[in-house]
Design a protein that fits this description.
It is built from five helices and no strands. With 143 residues, the protein is mostly helical. It has one domain.
């Protein structure tokens, strides 16, 4: 009986980790979008004043790096949100994600922190580890 309770506790922990990771990623996505608007407000003003269409990189041989940086910073936010939604979907379906997802995110965050230590990449470590932990519990229970 005690062994069954341990399994149930681990099983719940596995899904709780996914739920926490999902909400964490969604929060990071919101911070990223808001930060992108605030940090790059002058660039967004330039883009708006230039008419929005084809003004980020109108001539690929003469890039406007400040506009491109603002664009790519904001464009990353929906993908971060998508990772959060994937975690929440897996949580609701009582599924776990492959451990490779957590590993790839951890590697990406590590490279980001190495190249840009003073950045938001640090915020990706906790949810990546939660996702990996959730996958490892599931693999252990299935073997």
């Amino acid at each position: 009986m005690q062994n069954t309770n341990f399994w149930l506790k681990q099983k719940n922990q596995e899904f709780i980790m996914l739920r926490l990771a999902g909400w964490w990623w969604i929060g990071v996505s919101a911070l990223h979008a808001l930060g992108g608007i605030i940090l790059y407000y002058p660039q967004w003003q330039e883009i708006a004043q230039a008419g929005w269409f084809n003004v980020v990189a109108p001539d690929p041989f003469t890039p406007i790096f400040s506009r491109e940086t603002a664009f790519w910073f904001i464009l990353l936010s929906p993908f971060i949100y998508l990772v959060g939604e994937l975690c929440l979907w897996a949580y609701r379906q009582k599924l776990t994600l492959p451990s490779s997802v957590g590993i790839i995110l951890l590697i990406t965050m590590s490279i980001g922190v190495f190249l840009i230590p003073i950045s938001g990449f640090w915020l990706g470590f906790p949810p990546s580890m939660m996702m990996l932990y959730s996958s490892k519990i599931s693999q252990h229970q299935n073997s």
